[in-house]
Fold this protein.
Amino acid sequence: MLAALLADSSGQALAHASAWAVFAVGAAMILTGALGVVLLRNPVHCALMLVITLFGIALEFIDQSADFLAAVQIIVYAGAVVILFLFVIMFLGVDRKEAISAEPTRFQRPLAVLLGVVALVEILALSRIDHWSAGTPSQSGALSGPGSNVQKLGQAIYTGYLLPFEMTAALLVIAVVAAVVLSRRHQPSASEMSELDQEELLSARRFTPPDQGDQS
Amino acid sequence: MSVPSAWYLVLAAVLFGLGATGLLIRRNVLVMFMCIELMLNAVNLTFVTFSRDLNDIGGQVNVFFVLVVAAAEVVVGLAIIVAMFRRRAAATADDIHILKG
């Protein structure tokens, strides 16, 4: 978007340079944040590094004219998901450092790095064997053309993708109910208790201090 | 013309690899969750790049759905972590077996 504005005003070369500059800044932010998440020991620092990565991703979205998604990325991820992470970290009081030197299983760490490198090399090798993308262009609506990004995205979601959209609504409701059920403190009813527990509960109820007993 | 899409795809691949490595290295469940978020974001970046490459709105619609699913996943996952902490004050992946029945 910024690149397009610059192309109108002062030529192709400047637009080209600015697109590369935005890409480079975004890439630096993404990689710094990702390394921070993987390597830092304090979970709070990891969450803050995650924010840097998410901002970098939003920057790359803007660079590719996905304006709406960049805004949603900031609002949903940086605004809601990371805050939820930080809330849980603070709520549970786990902002202490992880003993990163203690290895749970032998050779776990070198093997993990090896696996990550193998996955990366595989992706890159596959992309060299074939083209990055091969498919019918504009299958579900053109990206370029008149109209804003939000308008085209909304039209696609509310026409061709209406059923998945409704299903995500149901998914969100299910997630909210699940969160409430999972984090609720469980109070066992009498039928779920053992006989011993029931006896204890009954005797505790039977015993009332004398002054309270007089009032009732 | 802007940056070629191969650069974005390589960047996304590197981010995905970092997230996968972090998921395998770390033992704190919260940080493992953050690494999953990294991998999801790498995939989102590829979706947007392919969307631009093929001039197709479908990729961006998919990113929208990934965002929704990721939000739901985080909500349920964090609820499970909180439930786990109720039982035992530690958040390593080795403690998840206490959740069974």
In short: Residues 12-39 of chain A form the longest helix (28 residues). The two ends of chain A are 74 Å apart (CA to CA).
